[in-house]
Amino acid sequence: MRFSFLLAFFFSAAASAEAQRIVATAPHLAELVCAAGACERLVGVAAYTDYPESVAALPKVADAHGVNAEALLALKPDLVLTWDGGSPQSALDALAKLSVPSRALRIRKLDDIAAAVEQLGEWLGTAETARAVAERFRADLARLSARYGRGAKLRVMYQIENSPIYSVNRDSPISQAITVCGGVNVFAELPQLAAPVSRESVMAMNPDAIVFARQDDVKRIRDDWSRWPELKAVRDNHLFAVNADLLARATPRMIEGISELCSLMDFARSK
Q1: Interior angle at CA 10, CA 9 and CA 13, nearest 5
Q2: Which of 25, 10, 31, 29 is nearest to 75 (CA)?
């Protein structure tokens, strides 16, 4: 028992304020480190990490397919952050072989965002800063829910990609954002966090609004849906492009993305 306690204590200390060289293996993990008040300790990030600007130029040592072991070791990290449920198994296996100190953050719900910031604050010795950010996130989320959550329910589809089309189930923070805004995710029952859906299934669900990323090919998405004028979202011109970097990344900035989504849904509701 005493030996187990000492091991736990030692590992906790290693991944706390002593961690001065941090690698984040997903874009949102880098944002979370910065939100927790330890941005200057990041030495390596993942592909597509672009916020905040100060970390965008850091070496890219990971992507959706795995990690570059040689590049990662060259940075001499004392803490590598992974995404529980999102980091590819190949990346986790590579880290295990390298014996690099690592920690995993799990985010499936909106409440997990604030909890993740606080957890990082505990690990990195920035608890006070992290707690303030987390409390502000929770307050902003409650404000949006109070303002929009009681409106007439809109049936919403969140679209990822176009060929094939993917959507998200109830476990995605995006689905919970739809709920905050007074909507219902029509594909909440999908078997996976993100799964392909056919146009015929969209027709069967007949959502009031279809939401997609403005970072995607917006013109093509709109043109493709225009061939299905019987869809309520198409008929009412409720095809909404949002900033996916804000809405799809599980960080405190998601509040900005949810605010945009709520405004668009409220516009559709008013019509």
Answers
A1: 85
A2: 25
Q: Which residues contact 183 (CB under 8 A, 6 or more apart)?
A: 153, 154, 155, 156, 209, 265
Q: Which of 32, 63, 18, 19 is nearest to 45 (CA)?
A: 63
Per-residue model confidence as pLDDT tens digits over 118-171: 999 999 999 999 999 999 999 999 999 999 988 789 999 999 988 899 999 998
CA angle 243, 248, 249 (to 5 degrees): 110
How many angstroms separate the CA atoms of 62 and 48, rounded? 10
Q: How confident is the model at residue 13 (pLDDT cuts 50, 70, 90)?
A: very low
Eight-class DSSP state of 110: H
Whole-model pTM?
Answer: 0.86
Roughly what angle, to the nearest 10 degrees, separates helices 127-148 and 110-124? 170
Other Cβ atoms closer than 10 A to 243? 16
Closest CA to 228 of 159, 152, 137, 154: 159
Q: Which of 3, 18, 15, 30 is nearest to 250 (CA)?
A: 30
Question: Cβ atoms within 10 A of the Cβ of 254, count?
Answer: 25
Residue 57 is encoded by which pair of tokens?
Answer: 């130029």
Average pLDDT over residues 174-185: 96
DSSP 240: E
Q: Which of 182, 183, 184 is nearest to 150 (CA)?
A: 182
> How many residues are present in the chain?
271
| Torsion angle of the four alpha carbons 42, 245, 106, 150, in this order, in degrees rounded to the nearest 10 | 140
Q: What is the DSSP string of 150-219?
A: TS--EEEEE-B-SSSEEEE-TTSHHHHHHHHTTEEETTTT-SSSEEEE-HHHHHHH--SEEEEETTS-HH
